[in-house]
Amino acid sequence: MSARIYQRPKNAMQSGKSRTDQWVLEFAPAEARKPDPLMGWAGSGDTQVQVVLTFASAEEAKAYADKYGIAAHVSPVPPKRLKLQSYADNFR
Predict the structure, then answer these.
(1) What is the bridge-based pairing of β-strands 2-7 and 71-74?
(2) Which of 5, 36, 50, 74 has its Cβ near the most Cβ atoms within 10 Å?
(3) Please, is 61 exposed, middle or buried when counting C-beta atoms within 10 Å of its C-beta (0-12, 13-18, 19+)?
(4) Considering the chain, what percentage of its residues have pLDDT values greater than 90?
(5) CA-wise closest residue to 22 among 53, 55, 51, 52
(6) Do 65 and 3 contact (CB within 8 A), yes or no?
(7) pLDDT tens for residues 50-76?
């Protein structure tokens, strides 16, 4: 059982930064999805994919993974880059 630990990104559709301070532990899929013969929806028998755990810090998430024997990979947070420009730059 493997998992990925990452910090939740900012929602691209809104300007708010709610829940961006949380760290998320998501389990990797254990089996491939296959289409349902009746409806055609993609699904699998793996229920661990539905579990998403949130933590206050990366250390807490890593400690949880170590405690329960989960092989977890911590994804580093990309640096924030601001592109500063003025309104007048749109007309140059």
Answers:
(1) parallel
(2) 5
(3) buried
(4) 62
(5) 55
(6) yes
(7) 999 999 999 999 999 999 999 999 999
The secondary structure of the chain as a DSSP string is -EEEEEEPPPPTTSS--TTTT-EEEEEPPSS--EE-TTT--EE-S--GGG-EEEESSHHHHHHHHHHTT-EEEEPPPPPP------GGGGG-
Closest among 71, 70, 30 to 50, alpha carbons compared: 30
Q: In the structure encoding, which two tokens stand for residue 65, read together? A: 């993974």
- Give residue 68's pLDDT: 96
Spatial separation of the C-alpha atoms in residues 77 and 70, rounded to whole Å: 21
